[in-house]
Description:
about 80 residues, alpha+beta
Amino acid sequence: MMKPTPTKNKLPLRKGSFTTLAEALDYAAEGQTGFNFYNGAGKLSAVLPYKKTPKGSQIFGASFAGVGSAAWRTSCDGGGYPS
C-alpha cells in the first residue's frame, strides 16, 4: 500500500532565500516531504518524495527558466506563491 510523504519536516523552513527553483528543490531533497497526488475520488495515486528530485530539479529548473519564469517572479506576492 502506498503511503503519502510526511507533512512535517526536520528541515528548517527557508522562505525566499533561494536564487533558483533548482536550488530550492535541492534543499527540499534533504528532507522527508514531497508531492502527494490524489485522484478524483480522493485516493492517493502517486507519491514523489523531494529526495528523488535533485537531478530532475536541475532539468526542470533549466526548462522553467525559459518558459515564463520572469512572469512567475512578478506575479508572486513575495512569499513564493502566485497572487
